[in-house]
Amino acid sequence: MRIDLHTHTDRSDGTVTPTELVREAVAAGLDVLGLTDHDTAVGWDEARAEADAQGLRLVEGMEISCRHAGRSAHLLGYLPDPGHGPLVAALDEVLRGRDERMPRIVAKLQELGYPVTEQEVAAKSAGATALGRPHVADVLVDHGIVASRDEAFDRLLSPGRPAYVARDAADLVAMIGLVRDAGGVTVLAHPWGRNGDGALGRDGFAALQEAGLTGIEVDHQDHDAAQRTELAAIGRDLDLVVTGSSDYHGTGKVDHDLGCNTTAPAQLDRLLAAAEAAQAARPTRPTRPTRP
């Protein structure tokens, strides 16, 4: 069984629709697909309809933008009730921060002499609920200023680069609790990738586990072999669920093909069992999902 639990569509910063994502997952030989657009569940219904038609098992989720100990952190929330009021309110705040950051990034790029407009970014992100820096990067590619999203981030859009703008994000510990209260489970995405290497050690993971964290995403393209080995050891030591995934974004991210990293079936079973326990612990258990 081939299981990929971290993917994106054009409802956030991917380049394919939810329907296209499911079809590509089937073509890639996947049996289970996790849909985890940034900060939104808006693509779930469309993906579920196609997954049912294709005989693919869909695990609904989202990748939530958080901060922890002064650093950016990404939290994969699986199977929460998307109509849970406190979770909806928190996600709305995160999305508001995304919206408010866009004109500030564009203004910085214009100050640097780059001919990027808010209208171009809006056109590039049409259909997306969660606006992000990748949409700005795509405009820079269209202008020939950079050759790829990666170059845009390396030169201009990452922390410390001239067009970077910070934004509001949810507190990681609080968000772990909100997802749990909504009947979901949480996995920390690529914790040692990008700028996170070494920032969170065993004790840090243990503290997050105490707060309700279910697992760690270990096998990810942003982790090298040594990091994967060490993270897997931490997962075993703490009895956390260990996952692997592609972090697929369509053509928006190179070297992240569907199924390039996968999750073991036994780990998926543990994740789903934890979700069932979280749902059973809720005072009321509404039919899910109730809101995109």
Mean pLDDT: 93
Which structural category do the helix and sheet elements fall into? alpha/beta
The number of E-state strands comes to 8
Gap between N and C termini: 29 Å
- List the quaternary state of the chains: single chain
User: Helix segment count?
Assistant: 10
Fraction in helix = 40-55%
Low-pLDDT segments, ≥5 res:
287-292
Q: Main beta sheet, described?
A: 8 strands, mixed
Strand residue content: 15-25%
User: Which of globular, elongated, flat, extended, rod-shaped describes the shape?
Assistant: globular
Helix and strand sequence: EHEHEEHHHHEHEHEHEH
Radius of gyration: 18 Å
Descriptors:
alpha/beta; 292 residues; disordered C terminus; 8-stranded mixed β-sheet
